[in-house]
Amino acid sequence: MTSSQAPQPYSRRRFLWLALFIVLLFGGYSAGWFWFAGRAEQEVQQRIAKLNQNGVAADCVNPTVRGFPFRIGLFCDRVEYENSNMRISASAGNLRTAAQVYQPMRTVLELDGPLTVTAPDLPPIRFNWDLLHASARLANPLPERISAETRKLTGEASFSDRSPVPLFTAEETQLHLRPNGQDIDVAGTFTGLVIDQQALGGRKLPPLDGSADASLKDGVSVVKGGERSLRGQSGTIRSLTLTTGGNTGAALSGPWSIDQDGLMDANLRVTVQNPRELSRILSEAMPEQRRQIETAMSGLAILGNAPSLPLRIVKGRATLGFIPLGMVPAVR
């Protein structure tokens, strides 16, 4: 009887040691998490303070770090930015970021609208959405990948003397950026884009879908150097499409470059899908140009249902096939 009960104190001690180990481990982890959260809040405050100079004012209102125990992320009640030298400003609602503690270099972000943007010579533009979600894989010197998407994106212009003017709505948008060697790849899509008739001066266009796949040569150096102009830059458009949601629209591809004077050079290829239907859509949108549109599209329709023509731009002067199109405005 005595020998059968002897192991019980030993088993009890093992259990107590295990429980103590778990308590200490969780306590140490908790202390480490909250210490890191405090340091992160200080880092955010310091980085914002460094931004706030030379006419720049940025703020993350009431920054806090949350997500205990398995996540960590920055939360702001509101985000604001103003550059008095460039006369631009932007403000938006609640910002939420998060990363898993075991995968800290992959972070996700959500931002609440509306986003209000002001810029010289433009009325205040207000954007809103049902969802704005972004993610990034952080690396040095640039993130390995940045992605953003919106659902039910809307835009409107505000005027002091009248009610806001609707600009557009879009069902879904996506944008992806990544370094590719020394270049930067850019890809994006949008669906269900409806441009308001007021923004088009009473003209009407059907809902539009679009996509883009392009690269910026030496884009890593451009981003690291803080370049704000495309002058002196070059790249390749692998695909740029705009359709009416079916099989009607246009596609563009080819290399381009912009000289120091802002004039473009490009050797592009334009493919028109279903030119007869595109002629009808454009004629309804621009009835004053109906004759010219029908003449041009009838000529393209002779070449098939998806004719392709070279679009060459030399020092800003554009030519489609043998048809001169005029000058492309210089890029600033």
Please provide a brief summary of the model.
With 332 residues, the protein is an alpha+beta fold. The protein has a domain at 1-118. The protein has helices at 2-5, 7-51, 219-224, 275-285, 290-302, and strands at residues 56-61, 64-66, 71-76, 78-83, 88-92, 95-100, 103-111, 115-118, 125-128, 131-137, 145-159, 162-180, 183-195, 208-216, 234-243, 249-258, 264-273, 308-314, 317-320, 323-327.
How would the blueprint of this fold be written?
Layout: H1 2-5, H2 7-51, E1 56-61, E2 64-66, E3 71-76, E4 78-83, E5 88-92, E6 95-100, E7 103-111, E8 115-118, E9 125-128, E10 131-137, E11 145-159, E12 162-180, E13 183-195, E14 208-216, H3 219-224, E15 234-243, E16 249-258, E17 264-273, H4 275-285, H5 290-302, E18 308-314, E19 317-320, E20 323-327
Antiparallel strand pairs: 1-4, 2-3, 3-6, 4-5, 5-8, 6-7, 7-10, 8-9, 9-11, 10-11, 11-12, 12-13, 13-14, 14-15, 15-16, 16-17, 17-18, 18-19, 19-20
Helix pairs in contact: 4-5
List keywords for this structure.
332 residues, alpha+beta, 20-stranded antiparallel β-sheet, 5 helices, 20 strands, 24% helix
